[in-house]
Backbone:
């Protein structure tokens, strides 16, 4: 048994404790030590995650590098971890994004810069502010990583819920510069809303987890071990009666749909992303929310195959509404960060649609979409954060003509925007097209309507760009400085990944495809065959 | 003597203690009433022990006495320090944590 | 030799990347670097042409598969190129005209502080356009398709500080996105129907039938209509034409390269490339023809009314592409002539735009033709090259436009039956209107008396001839405008060249070719004459007269923007606003109301907690009593 997965999760956890314990202080030197330690820990995690991806054999077993430690023996709960293709790419995504977020949030927790603290750096709460912020981010990373790797339903549940605690403090305690006198109140509203929505989802899921255990125990499977349970379900050894299966499915799905978020359970997201710092917003939408969509694939489909198929059309309709609704609302927003939040809601619609279209293109596309959306939204949101930190306003109307004074910033923003609207050649296009194709082959009408989403995406991105970056230079942005080296170091890897994964996504698809095939075979679905199949294009030969 | 009579006595003592807790405001008196209730239950336990012919009741009575002694130590200390600062032993006057 | 094909795309792409990432260091010579990359690509194109000419007709098509792009089970998208006679024609047009326009821009953009970026975008455009015409499957074509859209967006909005330019750029991208949706759906339909979207297996090549033959006509019609939607967006055909006029906000070299010679003709390429699909879907073909015919007249009318020289030329571009789309819709009778007109149009329209740019360059960036007049003496080279382009576009016998347009009109008649007569009539009418508005442009700009006006800062214009970097491209293009058509028609060389790819059929025209040519020429002469009577004989007013209802509508692009605004924009923004309200009041209001109710209930419940120990004790005793009583009661029952 290798300890690689445990190490991957334990390093950020230990890093969080270490960062929190570093000597408090108000001088820049002490703070910088904290930041560098946190960054180093996240980079170490990235190295471990990369090692996981390298050691993972695409053609091998479903779950690899598995580890299992006894935890609560009387309920058959073990702390077991295992990487499958879908989990592996999401672990990579998380490990890549966290250092980027840390670097982007370098000054967000300095009491004199960010809102949310009083300007006096010597107060009790401000003395440990920097340590707290960086430690919380690392704690979130650790919990997200466990969630992506857990192969025990109970362990997953615990970390799925525990994640809320650091996230609550991140949203409630740290805002961006744009906050007015009202901001503290709005921020605590956003944090409480986030917590309540997700707690409610989590409680419903807890009931379903217990229900699942009771039913499984009755039939001799007193365990929370996911491979055992899904295997038993697939072999017909564990038979859940249809009504109970539907109820359990809904219990799990509700929690994931809140977290993902699926329309109409989305309203916490714009508040949370709007009020928190740009880094936290990225953490929410690019990393934490992905646990929801990931769990739909791994738990809902694997444990409740029949119920998943029963509810698939209804969920597809909800996700279709989400796509159009999120995009239309993004068009109507006045606040940059809320606009990006609604755009994310639209994208989550695509992801969920891909999952429940039950085709290999749809699900591979959805998995890639999770990764690509994470990268592209991070690029857009972080650059928006840089912009907001310069001017101290989130309102689109306060900007104009930025490209004249800060061309690199504007260019980065445009690339992030183009990725968000899924320009072919950039990574999100690959995933979005796969989702659309995958949906279309089974549900043509839904696929066609969803295609309208690409027009709306172009609309909100280009309107945002036009209003903020083009036109005559407004007085309020005059003298704004362009991206600094640290900020370029944030943007560059994201842009590079966006282009690289758009041109050559094969390394990811190679890892993802077998896992998707396994998931599909769990729900006993195969791709709809083309009416007139033609042979695959001959590879590499020349006439 | 019929051991049941001890039970009646225990019930009486318990009732007196309980009424004291409900009615009186002086912390010391309250405290004594609580002690009374504890001792009433001790008496009842010992009596049951006698009736059933085993030692369970007596053992539990010992536990109760130990706990009661510990409680007296902490409780009296609190009451004395409250009395020192507020010059009153009334329980209604200590309301710092009330909303 | 075949390894040159990827380099064709890679050269300008490398140029774009180099210029964008290189920073200020490259400001001094970046434009020459970009021009060199474009020229390099053109050289590769010539080498490939030479190699292709050296092979037998049957072996001229070359496939290069670079790598597997998106492999997901049945969904196999590769990055692969297909070079055949059709694509090499486009490659040479794109890189040839592209290099000339790079050269022209060196002079035109000499004083722009962001010149390096302009050239980076031009190179990016070349790469995307080459990818579009070289792709061997529809998905890769889609990448080029949107890539040229992006380059067009960046270049239309190049002068971003002007709100009008930024708006025009956004509009162009959005309208194109609607078209792209069509391409998207077409690819999805192909995948669902055939499990592939690569040209080879789907469309077949010479001698081998593609998979499309097995599909039902309904499916093929659907695919065809979706491809047509895409073509409408990119080629500014009705109903997605509204962006092209506004796109003239971009620098003039951009208008010449992207919005006249190359990108806007991508729709024609798409339809011609998909000939196998359209040939089996007559309903789709009819729709293509109708769209082409309507746009032909639409663009021509708009071109007649515009006083802005670039917008008048944009109307003309729309109209000429209408000719090509119409020809492509005619099926095998027309494909070759659509492409032939596309190439000759590429020469003369690019030349006309460059001429217009040269005029603007000398007139303080004035675009209103009513403020020109008498410029022929001041700009002789521009006058001659523009004049040759003018003669070519109106179809003056012997020049390029004469041959290519004449063939399309012949093909329209050859469609046969009533349809043939209607289409022939429309194309003839179009020819007459073309002659009219182009003569108008010519007369207003180069003839008559001076009507020059000082610009906004009060500078009087001092028209002068442009530098030689600008003159050379104009002269080269003028040569193309004069001789290309004749060369192509000589021995039907162009027909034999393209026939293996597109197929060709002779229709049965009710009129002999000579008759058609005569009528066409008569129409042309009539158009020129009317225009001369209106603008050549009497002085032109500086302030435009009110004009008829049609003129006023045509000045507003035949009310297309008003229509879009009323039907799409206003309801759309109202819907967005309503949804914002619904989200914060409806969904969120429900949740917040729930929270408020719970809060209210609990603040009432809190009153029970009064903080007195004895009342808690009392409730404990009460509770115990109830419990004991219940237990006893239960036992006794």
Residues:
């Amino acid at each position: 048994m290798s300890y690689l997965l445990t190490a991957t999760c334990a390093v950020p956890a230990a890093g969080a404790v270490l960062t929190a314990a570093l000597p408090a202080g108000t001088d820049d030197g002490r703070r910088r030590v904290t930041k560098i330690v946190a960054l180093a820990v996240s980079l170490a995690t990235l190295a471990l995650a990369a090692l996981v991806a390298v050691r993972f054999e695409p053609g091998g077993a479903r779950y690899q590098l598995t580890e299992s430690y006894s935890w609560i023996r009387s309920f058959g709960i073990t702390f077991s971890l295992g990487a499958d293709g879908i989990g592996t790419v999401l672990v990579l995504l998380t490990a890549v994004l966290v250092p980027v977020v840390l670097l982007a949030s370098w000054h967000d927790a300095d009491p004199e810069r960010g809102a949310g603290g009083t300007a006096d750096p010597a107060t009790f709460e401000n003395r440990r502010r920097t340590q707290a912020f960086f430690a919380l981010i690392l704690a979130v990373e650790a919990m997200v990583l466990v969630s992506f790797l857990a192969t025990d339903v109970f362990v997953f549940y615990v970390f799925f819920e525990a994640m809320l605690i650091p996230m609550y403090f991140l949203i409630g305690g740290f805002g961006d510069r744009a906050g007015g006198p009202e901001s503290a109140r709005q921020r605590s509203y956003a944090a409480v809303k986030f917590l309540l929505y997700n707690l409610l989802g989590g409680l419903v899921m807890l009931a379903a987890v217990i229900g699942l255990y009771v039913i499984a125990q009755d039939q001799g499977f007193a365990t929370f071990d996911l491979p055992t349970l899904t295997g038993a379900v697939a072999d017909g050894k564990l038979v859940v009666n249809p009504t109970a299966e539907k109820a359990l499915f809904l219990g799990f799905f509700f929690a994931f749909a809140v977290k993902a978020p699926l329309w109409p359970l989305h309203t916490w997201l714009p508040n949370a992303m709007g009020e928190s710092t740009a880094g936290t917003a990225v953490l929410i939408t690019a990393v934490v929310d992905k646990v929801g969509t990931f769990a739909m694939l791994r738990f809902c489909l694997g444990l409740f195959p029949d119920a998943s198929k029963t509810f698939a059309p209804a969920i597809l309709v909800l996700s279709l509404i989400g796509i159009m609704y999120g995009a239309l609302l993004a068009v109507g927003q006045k606040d940059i960060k809320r606009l990006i939040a609604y755009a994310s809601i639209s994208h989550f619609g695509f992801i969920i649609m891909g999952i429940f279209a039950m085709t290999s293109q749809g699900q591979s596309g959805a998995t890639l979409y999770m990764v690509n959306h994470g990268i592209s939204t991070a690029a857009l949101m972080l650059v928006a954060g840089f912009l907001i930190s310069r001017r101290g306003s989130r309102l689109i109307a306060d900007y104009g003509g930025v490209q004249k004074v800060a061309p690199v910033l504007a260019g980065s923003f445009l690339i992030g925007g183009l990725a968000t609207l899924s320009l072919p050649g950039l990574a999100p296009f690959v995933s979005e097209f796969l989702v659309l194709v995958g949906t279309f082959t089974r549900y043509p009408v839904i696929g066609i309507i969803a295609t309208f989403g690409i027009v709306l995406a172009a609309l909100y991105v280009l309107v945002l760009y036009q209003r903020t970056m083009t036109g005559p230079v407004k007085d309020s942005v005059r003298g704004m400085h362009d991206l600094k080296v640290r900020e370029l170091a944030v943007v560059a890897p994201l842009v590079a990944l966006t282009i690289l994964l758009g041109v050559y996504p094969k390394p990811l698809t190679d890892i993802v495809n077998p896992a998707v095939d396994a998931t599909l075979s769990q729900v006993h679905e195969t791709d709809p065959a083309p009416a007139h199949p033609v042979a695959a294009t001959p590879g590499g030969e020349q006439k | 003597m019929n051991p049941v009579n001890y039970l009646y006595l225990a019930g009486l003592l318990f009732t007196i203690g309980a009424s004291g807790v409900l009615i009186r405001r002086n912390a010391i008196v309250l405290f004594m009433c609580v002690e009374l209730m504890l001792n009433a239950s001790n008496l009842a336990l010992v009596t049951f022990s006698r009736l059933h012919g085993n030692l369970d009741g007596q053992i539990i009575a010992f536990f109760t006495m130990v706990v009661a002694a510990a409680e007296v130590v902490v409780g009296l200390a609190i009451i004395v320090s409250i009395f020192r600062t507020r010059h009153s032993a009334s329980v209604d006057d200590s309301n710092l944590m009330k909303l | 030799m075949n390894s040159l094909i990827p380099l064709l795309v890679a050269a300008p792409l490398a140029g774009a990347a180099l210029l964008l990432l290189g920073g200020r260091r490259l400001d001094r010579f970046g434009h020459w670097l970009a021009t060199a990359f474009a020229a390099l690509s053109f050289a590769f194109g010539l080498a490939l042409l030479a190699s292709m000419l050296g092979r037998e007709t049957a072996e001229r098509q070359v496939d290069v598969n670079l790598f597997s792009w998106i492999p997901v089970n049945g969904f196999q998208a590769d990055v692969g190129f297909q070079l055949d006679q059709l694509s090499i024609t486009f490659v040479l047009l794109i890189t040839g005209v592209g290099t000339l326009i790079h050269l022209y821009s060196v002079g035109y953009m000499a004083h722009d502080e962001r010149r390096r970026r302009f050239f980076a975008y031009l190179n990016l455009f070349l790469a995307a356009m080459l990818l579009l015409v070289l792709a061997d499957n529809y998905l890769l074509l889609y990448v080029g398709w949107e890539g040229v859209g992006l380059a067009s967006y960046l270049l239309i909005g190049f002068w971003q500080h002007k709100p009008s330019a930024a708006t025009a750029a956004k509009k162009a991208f959005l309208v194109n996105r609607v078209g792209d949706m069509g391409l998207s759906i077409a690819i999805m339909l192909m995948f669902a129907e055939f499990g592939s979207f690569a040209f080879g297996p789907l469309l077949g090549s010479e001698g081998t039938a593609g998979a499309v033959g097995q599909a039902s006509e309904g499916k093929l019609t659907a695919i065809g209509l979706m491809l047509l939607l895409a073509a409408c967006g990119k080629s500014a055909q009705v109903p997605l034409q509204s962006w092209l006029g506004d796109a003239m906000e971009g620098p003039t070299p951009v208008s010449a390269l992207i919005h006249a010679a190359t990108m806007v003709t991508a729709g024609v390429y798409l339809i011609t490339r998909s000939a196998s699909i359209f040939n089996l879907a007559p309903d789709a073909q009819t729709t293509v023809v109708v769209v082409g015919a309507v746009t032909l007249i639409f663009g021509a009318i708009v071109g007649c009314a515009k006083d802005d020289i670039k917008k008048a030329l944009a109307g003309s571009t729309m109209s000429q592409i209408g000719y090509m789309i119409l020809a492509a819709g005619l099926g095998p009778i027309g494909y070759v002539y659509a492409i032939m007109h596309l190439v000759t149009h590429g020469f003369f329209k690019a030349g006309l735009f460059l001429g217009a740019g040269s005029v603007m360059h000398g007139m303080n960036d004035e675009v209103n033709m009513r403020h020109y007049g008498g410029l022929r003496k001041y700009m002789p080279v521009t006058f001659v090259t523009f004049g040759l382009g003018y003669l070519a576009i109106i179809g003056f016998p012997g020049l390029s436009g004469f041959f290519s347009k004449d063939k399309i009109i012949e093909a329209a008649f050859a469609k046969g039956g009533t349809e043939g007569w209607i289409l022939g009539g429309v194309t003839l009418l179009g020819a007459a209107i073309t002659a009219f508005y182009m003569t108008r442009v010519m007369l207003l700009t180069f003839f008559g008396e001076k009507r020059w006006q000082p610009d906004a800062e009060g500078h009087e214009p001092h028209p002068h001839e442009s530098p030689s970097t600008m003159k050379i491209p104009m002269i080269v293009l003028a040569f193309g405008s004069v001789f290309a058509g004749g060369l192509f028609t000589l021995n039907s060389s162009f027909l034999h060249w393209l026939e293996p790819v597109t197929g060709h059929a002779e229709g049965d025209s009710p009129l002999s070719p000579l008759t058609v040519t005569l009528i066409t020429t008569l129409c042309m002469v009539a158009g020129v004459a009317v225009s001369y009577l209106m603008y050549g004989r009497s002085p032109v007013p500086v302030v435009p007269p009110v004009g008829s209802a049609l003129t006023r509508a045509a000045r507003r692009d035949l009310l297309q923007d008003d229509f879009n605004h009323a039907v799409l924009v206003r309801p759309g923004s109202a819907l967005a606003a309503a949804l914002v309200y619904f989200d914060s009041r409806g969904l969120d209001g429900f949740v917040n109301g729930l929270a408020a109710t719970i809060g209210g209930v609990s603040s009432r419940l809190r009153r029970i907690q009064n903080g007195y120990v004895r009342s808690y004790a009392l409730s404990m005793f009460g509770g115990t009593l109830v419990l004991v009583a219940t237990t006893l009661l239960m036992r006794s029952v």
